[in-house]
């Protein structure tokens, strides 16, 4: 079972790294999942993730107070607005744009309601 947890953790880290580049793939939720999986599989990988200079602070902020850093909030907002902008230019049905806008609006509401890290 430890190997399964470790593999899932590594997959989540990979998805988080991809999420840094792709605008709509979330980074921090995958890092939180990776921390969860590594805590159950490998203390070495868990320690590595928590002490990582880029990833560690996001996990620590969330674990301590459910906080998201203002820079991450701004980046998420810009990414979401870009995705909605691109969608409105493409030949996408209006109901899809409405569903996407409502869903992403709720995501932004959640993000901005979190305390600052």
Strand residue content: under 5%
Main β sheet profile: none
| Class by SSE composition | mainly alpha
How many helical elements?
A: 6
Morphology call: globular
What is the CA-based Rg, rounded?
16 Å
Helix % is: over 70%
For the termini, the CA-CA separation is: 34 Å
Question: Residue-averaged pLDDT, rounded?
Answer: 90
N-to-C SSE string, H for helix and E for strand: HHHHHH
Topology diagram in text:
Layout: H1 2-21, H2 28-41, H3 43-51, H4 56-65, H5 70-89, H6 94-113
Helix pairs in contact: 1-2, 2-3, 3-4, 5-6
Give short descriptive properties of this protein.
mainly alpha, 6 helices, globular, 117 residues, single chain, 0% strand
Describe this structure in words.
The relative contact order is 0.12. 79% of the residues lie in helices and 0% in strands. With 117 residues, the chain is mostly helical. Helix 1 runs antiparallel to helix 2 (28-41), helix 2 (28-41) packs antiparallel against helix 3 and helix 5 (70-89) runs antiparallel to helix 6. The protein is globular. The longest helix is centred in the first third of the chain and has 20 residues, at 2-21. It is built from six helices and no strands.
